[in-house]
Design a protein that fits this description.
about 160 residues, 1 helix
């Protein structure tokens, strides 16, 4: 927690801050407009980030695949002590799996964490088709919203 002297809160669109994890805004106001404040807190962008005196708080929950595995939460400001506390949201909606049967054994993989979620399996290495099919069956037998599988389809391109 940090104690504040002067602050402002807004729903700002500032250049150079992460909209989503790894994607920076290329337009908006110059954040130097707010340099007279000790702390400026803003919503709007999905990723939490800090630069100089600007703190983008990020979203409270996952809305899109871009939000997956990027901790979300909300903030509480004590108006008397001016302390800011971030409360991490333990609930998630999206789950990505990097499937690599060269590194992980999928016979005992806990698929219960996929319940009530959108699931995406991104295939890195798939050397055992039977193991992969069994893993996909186990995922599909859970109470999931949707399953997407992303694979390399180079074998179907060009001369192949």
């Amino acid at each position: 927690m940090s104690v504040l002297q002067t602050m402002t809160i807004g729903h700002l669109e500032l250049e150079g801050f992460e909209l989503l994890r790894g994607v920076k805004s290329t337009h908006g106001l110059d954040h130097k407009v707010f340099e007279r404040f000790e702390l400026v807190m803003s919503g709007h962008y999905h990723a939490s980030s800090r630069q100089d005196n600007i703190w983008y708080l990020g979203t409270q929950l996952e809305f899109f695949w871009n939000d997956a595995h990027d901790p979300k939460g909300f903030h509480v400001i004590d108006t008397e002590t001016r302390e800011v506390e971030r409360i991490v949201n333990p609930y998630t909606l999206f789950e990505k799996v990097l499937y690599d049967d060269e590194k992980i054994g999928y016979n005992d993989y806990d698929v219960s964490k996929f319940d009530n979620k959108f699931v995406k399996i991104i295939v890195i290495n798939k050397n055992d088709q039977f193991l992969f099919d069994r893993f996909v069956d186990r995922v599909q037998n859970r109470d999931i919203h949707e399953l997407k599988i992303a694979e390399n389809f180079n074998e179907f391109l060009g001369e192949n």
